[in-house]
Amino acid sequence: MTEALGQGHEFGTGDERLAQLKSRLEAVRERISKATLDAGRTDEPALIVVTKFHPAQDIRRLAALGVTDIGESRDQEASAKAEELADLDVRWHFIGQLQGNKAKSVARYAHVVHSIDRPKLVDALARAVSAEQDATARPAMDCFIQVSLDDDAGSHRGGASQADVGLLADRIAAASSLTLAGVMAVAPLGADPSAAFEKLAGISERLRSAHPGATGVSAGMSQDLEEAVRHGATHLRIGSDILGSRPAVR
Ligand SMILES: *Cc1c(COP(=O)(O)O)cnc(C)c1O
User: Fold this and answer.
1) Which of 48, 95, 217, when mutated, tests ligand 1's pocket best, judged by the most ligand atoms within 8 Å of its CB?
2) Which of 238, 189, 219 lies closest to 54 in space, CA to CA?
3) Ligand 1 pocket member 215 (CB < 6 A)
4) Are 188 and 152 a contacting pair, CB within 8 Å?
5) How confident is residue 155, by pLDDT bands cut at 50, 70 and 90?
6) Which tens digits make up the pLDDT trace of 107-145?
7) Does 95 sit in the ligand 1 pocket, CB within 6 Å?
8) Reduced to 3 states, what is the DSSP secondary structure of residue 182?
9) How far does the centroid of ligand 1 lie from the alpha carbon of residue 129, in Å?
10) Radius of gyration of the chain, Cα coordinates, nearest whole angstrom
11) pTM
12) To the nearest 5 percent, what fractions of the chain are helix, strand and coil?
């Protein structure tokens, strides 16, 4: 195998994990291309590979295979990996629940946060990114508003209520260190992902009427990427179908 060009020269042809990641990545990329075609779209969504619980060395392998966008959901783990992999040219996406007291840490390495769900978090991130910009000239942080698509509180998977999206959007747009990217959601457990993503598309449309630049729709995981693509996802967050299984998520 001679594909490990660019970043990651260190992986030889005998690296079995590299070969495994390569074939799974290719399979997922093919699914995305097919779903894009089936949806009659010409704009292929961006692939964010979610590496939580998997070692930093796998991110090196993914970068060697051409992956440019990495998703992580816990600050402690993500910040350690970002530090260890500072030489890699990848964009870090924070996709997990975020406490306000972690905003400073996230502002040091994350290019994008997908899980903004309350005004206090907007304020904490705005301050933290602004301070980081003074110190390091980092770019503005791209921010997705995570929306809850649950009607049933019992299967809640996080996110703001739909009624709060407008208020959160205005607050993000007003912060000079933040850029409003769009909306994000996780399909409710046990429900039809297609209906959930259709709902999200409507929320995105309403958001864009007030904020035309906020065109991002972060939706779709290993199990439901086809449905997400069909309903206009611009960013897919794929973990287990590329990395393999991981310990149960909290
Ligand atoms: C873990 C995670 C993913 C990836 O899920 P897979 O089913 O492994 O593809 C996507 N989005 C969020 C918010 C996650 O926490």
Assistant:
1) 95
2) 238
3) no
4) yes
5) low
6) 999 999 999 999 999 999 999 999 999 999 899 999 999
7) yes
8) strand
9) 25
10) 18
11) 0.94
12) 45, 15, 40
**240-244: long-range contacts at Cβ-Cβ below 8 A with a sequence spacing of 24 or more?**
241/24, 241/27, 241/28, 242/21, 242/24, 242/25, 242/28, 242/49, 242/62, 243/21, 243/24, 243/49, 243/50, 243/51, 243/54, 243/58, 244/20, 244/24, 244/54
Contact 60, 80 (CB under 8 A): no
Ligand 1 close to Cβ of residue 62 (< 6 A): no
pLDDT tens digits, residue range 157-173? 789 999 999 999 999 99
Ligand 1 contact, 186 CB (< 6 A): yes
Cα(223)–Cα(45) distance, rounded to whole angstroms? 16
Amino acid identity for residue 126 in this structure: A
Q: Is the CB of 159 under 6 A from ligand 1?
A: no
What residues form DSSP beta bridges with 112? 93, 142
The CA distances from residue 158 to 78, 95, 155, in Å, are: 20, 11, 9
